[in-house]
Amino acid sequence: MNKNMLTELSDILNSRFSGLPCEARRLFHGRGRCYEGLEQLTVDWLKPVLLVSIFKEQEDSFYASLSEMLLVFASSPKWKEAGGEHILVQHRDRIDSPSEVVVGSIPEQLEITENGLTFLLDIGKRQNNGLFLDMRFGRKWVMANSQNKRVLNLFAYTCGFSVAAIQGGAQKVVNLDMAKSSLARGRDNHRLNAHDLSKVSFMGHDIFKSWGKLRKNGPYDLVVIDPPSFQKGSFVLTKDYAKILRRLPELVAENGEVLACVNAPDVGVEFLLEQMKEQAPEFAFVCRLENPPEFEDISDQSALKVMHFVRG
């Protein structure tokens, strides 16, 4: 990256701190390749934390210039007015993704809001903090389209879609994820929003060994599929997505819906369209959901893909 671009980054942060929402937001998305020289850097506002993430090792001079810029920003009136307390730099390229404190400290845990809902995050403890901000519109769509529905949330992680579905009036949500610790955080998120946990199931299983259990709890009116691009030993998107799609006729009710997601820059829109047509042709494509505007990307093919299908 280019340390001379940090002046532009400072200007962008100052501009975007004006009229800043109380909810969590990405403030700068260099990963979308719209800012030459800052492609390996993102900035998230998780009130009262400003989290700067770096995805590729840089020269010492870049880190020094970044820290200097952030310290100047922390002394600005806008930072104080917004209630900023902590500035962290997370090194996503390093083992365990450690976080460096520039201002303040690392909060033990952090409650943030999105779409009026509350989520609990872990800051500075692991690579991902507990909520992917680029899926904000996806969770909003689920909240608006879950009334009285039975929902299946695959690769549930910390159950963001489940929280949105129950808030939107879902009759039942089944969450499946191999990581039981993530599902435990999902329970915490539901409790934070005063949800009735009798409507929510948490299955800590390998999806490819759980089709019988999933069928038993179905059929579902809405299935959300939001897998990782790659998870060593368990999931490779380009190879394994088809195995999920071909099971949809067994899981989805008549006129049921599917929200299928891909967040791999090198996998375009046609991948999901072709895979669905081949593996589950009775599901018709409806539309691709828009991404939040703050996640600007040089190409809509490399940006997050959230695709809506309906069973005919």
From TrEMBL:
One record GO biological process: rRNA processing
Entries under InterPro entries matching the protein: SAM-dep_methyl-trfase, SAM-dependent_MTases_sf
Signal sequence interval, chain numbering: none
An MF annotation (GO) of this entry: methyltransferase activity
Gene3D superfamilies the record matches: Vaccinia Virus protein VP39 (3.40.50.150)
Keywords: Methyltransferase, rRNA processing, S-adenosyl-L-methionine, Transferase
S-adenosylmethionine-dependent methyltransferase domain residues: 25-309
Keyword Glycoprotein: no
Pfam families per the UniProt record, alphabetical: Methyltrans_SAM
Protein name: Methyltransferase
Organism classification: Bacteria, Pseudomonadati, Pseudomonadota, Gammaproteobacteria, Vibrionales
